[in-house]
Amino acid sequence: MKHIFLLLTAMFFVSCASQKKISESVTRSLTETYFEGWVSGVRGGGAGINFHVVFQTPLSNQTKLEKVVFKGKEAVFQTQDGLHYTAYIITKSGGKNMPDQEPVNEPLPESTKAVLYFKQNGKTKVHTIKNVKEKEMLAYPSMNKPR
């Protein structure tokens, strides 16, 4: 009985370790991660963070970049060319909220750590980035009122 318990425990730790890391080819292809805050140029327009991930080569068909957890917020990625991925994190909602959403106005932690979630061969894998670079904030201009 003791041997079975030790065997199951060892299998658990081995399976957890293998599921947590993405393949080396994906991490080698990862060239840049950065974020930039933004604020709306109109009162009540909101604020947020654009989180960017850039790859040197496109991800394989078996690998998909799904989401990021950054500063206590989670957002899904979008891409247009397969090399540049962006996740849009809303940190301060503006105007009217959607009926199924709660207002987002709490302060964010100061961490520069991000956790990327990939789907690789049908299994969820994670990659942690400890020091994400911050680029200059985007301050969108206000609109002129229509006449």
From TrEMBL:
<keyword id="KW-0732">Signal</keyword>
<protein>
    <recommendedName>
        <fullName>Lipoprotein</fullName>
    </recommendedName>
</protein>
<feature type="signal peptide">
    <location>
        <begin position="1"/>
        <end position="17"/>
    </location>
</feature>
